């Protein structure tokens, strides 16, 4: 019986194969204990959930103490229904393997499991509180909507509590009592085509439950009679000297009582004391402000300036405020912020260019994907940001799938810029499409609440530099006006971008973006063109499509039959390429190019090896082309690789795969995005130096060699005493037309500092037969070719060997492994594209996540390179280094621990 068939049978009859609530989760049945102190926010960190088809009582009964939840599932605080079922091992087979997910997606197979509401229930204990204490229930986003009960009383209706992003608060004080209380929510299923929730389009299968649940969590808030909320800091920075910053601090004070109160708001911002007393009538809300005119200390001299990664440090300042009523603490709030200026303007060609602290920068980023079940995993999110920094990228674009507070905190700390915005292709853009259903008044309210809530979440974060109010379509006038008005009401100071396509709105003006493809395979030379997705202007999403994971990941995600089809049958549909859209369900353009350029694959291993070479080459070229033109007369101002990561194991669109196993695409991007970099231009044969830092570099030395397949050097040039300005490029040489080249040949570039320290090393494999693009027959996702480059001679390279020396040391909670690869001078062959991986023990798992200084490296006889990897310490097994390559047989060596370093 096929795996998917077995899973389908398990899913029939409303989870007939679901197990009882896991023993390890029994602790989640204990009530959450709340503190009595004012100003305390307690996240609901555990629920019990059940399908309303099984739990058929009403909310008045389910929200009472003593209600039996014997057959309910204990889940974590942010769990969607599907995430909660996965936490309970409810499915007997890995839903990420092969097409097992299909059985969960089909309502007939799953017994309509996700078309009825689901109950979320939790209990909490509340100590006896002093007079004037209020308890609020805060929901941070609900997919798609929910009714809410507390202790038998309904406090919210799904008509009012709807949408993935709006934050809602309810004062539930009058229904609570000391000791045990019950909160219950009936969460309604969503359809992203019908509600303002979350959709997945072509880059991920649709989650079977459509992400139903409180995905951003629910909080229980304790406050006195005056509540503080929405603290934020507006900073005006002197440009260009950055020597002064004027801060304006705002916080919303709300009187929750039926009696008037005087409240004293005090605290510190960036170490400056602030204080103000306000009179609040019953139920009154007032925005309390502090500025240099009221508090002269808020005019800062020589502030610490926040810079993006690669341009400077990322210091953050604290804001802490307290409200006191009658001498007692009523509420507390805090935030962090950075001082920086973020702006944009249109170039002469009409493309958007961003400036940070008055300095232009090339936006180099990727499109963000959360886990497809929206599982909240702090350790993974931290690891992903470490990958982004390791890649040398400076930006994430979120096309919808907007994240929680932790995401933006990490971006602030790592110096990663965020371009946030609404998503395409579902309800969010239905009103913008021809024939799309217009929004109702209820839709407009949810959208306005969403915009306000996101503005409040994002505006303190120095990492956030803009918001797209449209993606594949600009919003129609009424919606665009609503977004602009809402942002203005929320003190939004950053660029508002009409869409990720070249469209305009009256309020935001021209977008300054282009979205002309490609999304499928094109050759590296494409990126140097002056049309479509070439390196000019701002490309809001673009890449060459397929990114093939390494072998160990393919065997985790594909069945044996799918693995065979991957290399044998280019026309075969792959569920892990696209579960829904036929355009990308086959890898034909990629497979055809691989066969023409490198030779038809002879096995899955051969296919994967060729794919890594191609992915590295193409991703590197995409970023390098934009590098080359970042300060040109017609500048390239931004490129967002589509995509950065995957929500599930995929054969498409990622710089690192779902398993976080860096492969060719990762190291191609990392190479191109070095802070100071040497590169080759496919269009002009120029050798270009790129400096993404703000510091001038002097006395650089460049060494340029062109080699035949046999290693024979056909061109050799050394350049001395090169100065390179900060945030600039410089062309230092142009390769001549060279006679006598083999059909496939190499360009080897080395850049060192004045003292000989290695700065950048870059190796290209090129063909004397160029790729020829058929521009006239381009479409929205690719440009076909009339001729492919011929790199098939790479197959004739003789076997090469590397000497490997590896050691490991402990640094805090990390292992740091250093690997030196050396090709003996007596060797007869280049060691092409050597990949180094680390296992935890001789037969152990890969050490992942892992951050390398470099990888996928090419060396000639007599050359060596030292690579360093950092990864989490785990267990006691000695690390083992594995090295393999295009023509380098796999070898393993131990990486013994040589010393301990304590931090």
Break the fold down into its secondary structure elements and pairings.
Layout: H1 3-15, E1 32-33, E2 41-43, E3 46-51, H2 59-62, E4 73-76, H3 81-87, H4 101-105, H5 107-110, E5 118-126, E6 134-139, E7 142-150, E8 153-156, E9 162-163, E10 168-171, E11 179-188, E12 218-223, E13 226-237, E14 244-255, E15 261-269, E16 272-280, E17 285-290, E18 299-301, E19 317-325, E20 328-337, E21 342-346, E22 352-356, E23 359-360, E24 363-367, H6 378-391, E25 395-397, H7 405-414, E26 417-421, H8 427-430, H9 441-458, E27 464-468, H10 477-489, E28 496-497, E29 504-505, E30 509-510, E31 537-542, H11 551-557, H12 560-568, H13 582-585, H14 588-598, H15 604-628, E32 636-641, H16 664-672, E33 676-680, E34 686-691, E35 697-707, E36 713-724, E37 728-734, E38 744-752, E39 758-767, E40 772-773, E41 785-787, E42 803-811, E43 814-822, E44 831-840, E45 850-852, E46 857-859, E47 864-872, E48 879-884, E49 891-894, E50 896-901
Parallel strand pairs: 1-5, 24-25, 24-32, 25-26, 26-27, 27-28, 31-32, 42-50
Antiparallel strand pairs: 2-12, 3-4, 3-5, 5-11, 6-10, 6-12, 7-8, 7-9, 7-11, 13-14, 14-17, 14-18, 15-16, 15-19, 19-20, 21-22, 22-23, 29-30, 33-34, 34-37, 35-36, 35-38, 38-39, 40-41, 42-43, 43-47, 44-46, 44-48, 45-47, 48-49
Key features of this structure:
903 residues; alpha+beta; eight-stranded mixed beta sheet; seven-stranded parallel beta sheet; 16 helices; 34% strand
Notes on the structure:
By secondary structure, the protein is α+β, with helices and mostly antiparallel strands. 17% of the residues lie in helices and 34% in strands. It has 16 helices and 50 strands. The strands form twelve sheets. Strands 1, 3, 4, 5, 7, 8, 9 and 11 form an eight-stranded mixed beta sheet that branches. A seven-stranded parallel beta sheet has the order 28-27-26-25-24-32-31, with helices on one face. Helix 6 packs parallel to helix 7 (405-414) and helix 9 runs parallel beside helix 10 (477-489). It is globular and about 90 Å long.
